[in-house]
Amino acid sequence: MIITDVQAFKVVLPLAQPLHLGPLKIDKRDYAFVRIRTADGKQGTGFGFNRDGLVPEAVVRHLKSLLLGEEVLHTERLWESMYRATRFHGRRGLLMRAISAVDIALWDLKGQYAGLPLWQLLGGYAAEVPAYVAGGYYRADADTDTLRREYADYREQGYRGAKIMVGGATLAEDVRRVAAAREGIGEELPLMVDFNGALSSAKQALAAMEAFAPYQPAFVEEPFLMDNRVALRGFCDRTNVPVAVGEDESGRWAFRELIGDGLVDVLRHDATLVGGISEWIKVTMTGLSHEVPFYPHWFPEVHIHLAAAFPQGWGVELIPASSGIMGFDKLLDNPVEMEAGVARAPEEPGLGLRWKEEALEKWAVI
Prior knowledge:
By secondary structure, this protein is α/β, with parallel strands linked by helices. Helix content is about 40%, strand content about 20%. The protein has 2 domains: about 5-115 and about 355-365, Enolase-like, domain 1, CATH 3.30.390.10; about 120-345, TIM Barrel. It has helices spanning about 55-65, 75-85, 95-115, 120, 145-155, 170-185, 200-210, 230-240, 250-260, 270-275, 275-290, 300-310, 355-365; strands at about 5-20, 25-40, 45-50, 130-135, 160-165, 190-195, 215-220, 245, 265, 315-320, 340, 340-345, 365. The chain is globular. The model has no long low-confidence stretch (mean pLDDT about 95).
């Protein structure tokens, strides 16, 4: 079970049509991959967003030497070693993405050696979890009629609820968009709104939520950038809408502050950024000790295991392959899919993913 090789590369997938996430324009998807191999021939794969960064380079330059010759099963010791060795280069962001990808690959291997899928190895709470959908992205052809049909389709397909992007247009336009989504999905299913950090003050967020109130948002996600704790605190103190944050935050210490100060009602932490599966578990346990439920941010290929392992999870977030927004499905023979409102956790050991090696080679950038 000794590590003999660590490889890292990125995969760049062009999007057929650009989209907007609040102020961000996205015309491609840029993923970082880590492959860890052992002396007896097993291979674990970790991944996450590269975001035009240098995540693969960070793995090779700063982490690889700490891993070679080490025991795969010693994930806690290896995590501590990686975190301490890179603390002067950045305790969040790029370096934590690199640590996260490595840690996910190590847990993939751990599950393979145990002969168990990760969700069973970690806790085995439920083999099926509710499936929610993220949509309503800003696109040139997405008028209110298009949005209404999109969310009606989500209802008909059986999703347990849906999210819509806001914050990338005027408030008046966003109100029309949220109204169309609510009309499409119906009154009985939860509809969430996601600002993707577009706002800068509590007053802005409070005004927006007052305007959205007739459409009964189930939660509001990431109204501000995570560094803007002043605005988040002011908003949380005065809103009745549950606040979901965490997809852009890293490390247990930041979440200790968020949870302890009552600044989060739904945890959205992402194993590909928070510090891998090892750190995701620590954040989840902190949340559960405060009765804060979790709803992991996208990347269902890893989060299906985590959502299925522990109690008080909302479920898993999916983005349909047909939307062309992520492209990750092009890399897998068995992407996570919804059926009758649920996603079923894999039965294969580890992450249980079957990669399309030819697709990885086609779009890989070494």
